[in-house]
Amino acid sequence: MTNPFHEDGVEMPQERIPADLRRMTNKELRNLGMSKLAYVRPVIYEGEAAFAIHAADGTPMALTEDRDSAVEAIIDHEMIPAWVH
Question: Which domain of life is it from (predicted)?
Fold first, then answer.
């Protein structure tokens, strides 16, 4: 299986490929690379429900009105979406 989280064309060693994103530690999530993975989480912004897009390290990147728009934006930027609930 090819690892989508490689940097500069060099793949990570097999033992570093995450088996399940839901069971990753904070350190493992940060090591995936901000330019490869973004996560979506529901938030309240100015009293309204919204969806925040964050880089793997938690850096806020964008805000959307619905989950589908958030996922589309992530994919459009050639990143891998993850859902945080």
Answer: Bacteria
Give me the residue label for tokens 């990570």: 12
C-alpha span between 31 and 45 (Å, rounded): 29
Domain boundaries, the chain: 14-83
Query: Would you tell me how many other CB atoms lie within 10 Å of the CB of residue 70?
Result: 25
Q: Report the distance separating Cα 76 and Cα 3, nearest Å.
A: 20
Q: Which pLDDT tens digit goes with each residue over 7-30? A: 555 554 554 554 566 777 777 766
The C-alpha atoms of residue 42 and residue 64 are separated, in whole angstroms, by: 10
Query: Of 71, 25, 36, 33, whose CA–CA distance to 51 is shortest?
Result: 71
